[in-house]
Design goal:
about 550 residues, Immunoglobulin-like, five-stranded mixed beta sheet
Length: about 550
């Protein structure tokens, strides 16, 4: 068990490695530490129904039902506006770009999944580009849907690709229609188990059906006569390579060009002209196309002054390199479609990102989530406090330019909510060689923004390993009391490293950031943190982490 352990509440102190016990559905489950993180394990209760998931040193028991809580936002059949950020609880079937490129101070986000994937729950996925009054608008290529079956808790993966599992817990409001958007983890997610509660009407079960459209958006339909709020508690999954790929295939990126919704000729001509400015053309490999696209759109900066208008908002945004998440994802998708690369614009109430279709190691096509940055300065996340963050395995092989890293570090400093893709994960050690050609200069003639070689989270050939120490191995702590910790940050030679950020987390049934400090002379750090009153009683692992800097890789005390 990594980390230092302590008992919380009136529990007897346990040792450095400990057994975590949880009770769910009347069945006692004992978790043996260091079970490994190769996959999320499912613990079955009575009747073969899932009672808990084992994930990242914790047991995640099945969500509880009941009336809608203050930190929940019911999903509604009412459509969103399709302009700017998504309305919480609604889905927009279209997206029309705007020129408000300034950074928002904070946005709300309502968590649905455990482990949490904040801020990446999928609500709207758009896979088509159509011209409307001369402006490219994003939409859905087809209204056709397919029914998604409930496959069973232990259903094997259909294509052999490893999958991660998640609890879903959401309230759907059927008062405005019988077809309501259902948040999802990935476009290839499965519904493994499903139970329902009709709220306010005796909490009866409802025969809900799940559907998915061709853009990978999920919906729930209710029988005629159901005009109430219904809670869905479900077990779902997602291919592990949806979140991150160890490498990109050396295959043409227009391999699935026949699946791209046809572009308006003028839009396609504009997009290909812009692609050539980046040094790209149809047929270039994934190893060249994706790094160059991602580096460009991750290098955007938020600005109170939008790019000058030429009457072509696609080119203005793509070349101007200003804007938040939606201003990056919108031209990315259009450019990718012109190159023959299937891509989707995905959005929720707090964030927008893209998905691209890429061959997998299992020799089947699959989707890859790509975050381009540009989220708000702070994430006001509701319902994340009792959910550990999902952490994708492996390295991010795509470039992380300096503006992208800087923005996410600022978000992490302002938002106590856990993020599913923190920057303290190990960085990519190499950049695909085919992408090493420099991108074209910007329209103003200035050089391109620095690539990942200039970023502390891109390739750092001179970075060194870092070791964190914690003085003491076990503590007895009560809620509402203070906990004082000491330790050092050391380089490979045993010398202290000064000026590093150090974070203290408590991980058990939930994970909570307790405090942050900075190393001083000789790499010493001291922190006095409070244990929140609302933290459930239990045994916790105390984790101490540092994201490192340009000289040192991230580290976690173990």
């Amino acid at each position: 068990m990594p980390g230092t352990s302590f008992g919380l509440g009136a529990l007897v102190l346990v040792g450095f490695a400990f057994a975590l016990v949880a009770r769910a559905d009347g069945v006692l489950h004992e978790y043996v530490p260091d079970a490994g993180d190769e996959e999320l394990e499912t613990i079955l209760g009575r009747g073969g129904e899932p009672a808990a998931l084992v994930y990242d040193d914790a047991i995640l028991t099945a969500p509880t039902g009941g009336a809608r809580r203050a930190n929940e936002q019911a999903m509604s059949a009412l459509p969103g506006s399709g302009r700017g950020r998504e309305t919480a609880g609604r889905r927009s079937p279209t997206f029309r770009p705007d020129r408000i490129t300034s950074l928002e101070e904070s946005v709300g986000y309502f968590a649905v999944f455990t482990p949490t994937i904040a801020p990446f729950k999928r609500i709207s996925a758009l896979d088509a580009v159509v011209a409307s009054d001369g402006t490219p608008v994003l939409g859905v290529s087809s209204l056709q849907t397919e029914r998604v079956p409930v496959e069973g808790a232990l259903a094997p993966a259909p294509d052999g690709r490893p999958r991660d599992r998640f609890w879903g817990n959401v309230v759907l409001d059927f008062r405005h229609g019988a077809l309501v958007p259902l948040p999802s983890v990935s476009p290839e997610s499965r519904i493994l188990t499903l139970r329902t509660e009709r709220l306010g009407v005796g909490d009866d079960e409802v025969d809900i059906e799940i559907h998915r459209d061709l853009a990978g958006s999920f919906f729930a339909s209710a029988p005629p006569g159901v005009r109430d709020e219904v809670r869905l508690i479900f077990l779902t999954d997602a291919p592990r390579d949806y979140f991150r790929r160890d490498e990109l295939p050396d295959l043409p990126s227009d391999l699935y060009a026949d699946e791209v919704f046809p572009l308006d000729p003028r839009v396609r001509a504009d997009a290909l002209r812009f692609a050539r400015e980046l040094g790209l053309s149809p047929g270039a490999s994934y190893r060249r196309t994706l790094p160059l696209l991602v580096e460009h759109f991750r290098s955007f900066v938020e600005s109170d002054e939008p790019p000058p208008s030429t009457g072509n908002i696609f080119l203005d945004l793509a070349r101007g390199m200003k804007g938040v998440c939606r201003h990056r994802a919108y031209p990315f998708v259009i450019t990718a479609h012109a190159l023959g690369l299937p891509a989707r614009f995905v959005q929720n109430e707090a964030h927008a990102w893209v998905e691209v279709k890429v061959p997998t190691a299992a020799d089947v096509p699959g989707w890859l989530r790509i975050d381009l940055g540009g989220s708000a300065a702070g994430l006001d996340a509701h319902g994340t406090q009792d959910r550990p963050p999902h952490r994708p395995l492996g390295d991010d092989v795509l470039p992380r330019p300096e503006p992208y890293v800087r923005a996410y570090r600022e978000i992490a400093a302002r938002s106590p909510a856990p993020m599913s893709d923190p920057l303290d994960l190990p960085p990519a050690s190499t950049r695909p060689s085919e992408a090493s050609a420099p991108s074209a200069a910007s329209p103003s003639g200035s050089a391109s923004p620095p690539g990942p070689a200039a970023s502390i989270h891109g390739p750092r050939p001179h970075a060194r390993p870092l070791r964190l120490t914690v003085e003491g191995r076990a503590f007895e702590v009560f809620r509402g009391r203070r906990l004082t910790l000491h330790g050092r940050a050391l380089d490979p030679d045993g010398l202290g490293v000064e000026g590093l950020r150090v974070e203290v987390h408590a991980r058990g049934p939930i994970e909570r950031l307790l405090g942050v400090t900075v190393t001083g002379p000789e790499g010493r750090w001291d922190v006095n943190v409070g244990v929140p009153q609302e933290l459930p009683v239990g045994d916790y692992a105390l984790l101490v982490r540092s994201p490192g800097n340009e000289r040192f890789f991230p580290a976690t005390a173990r």
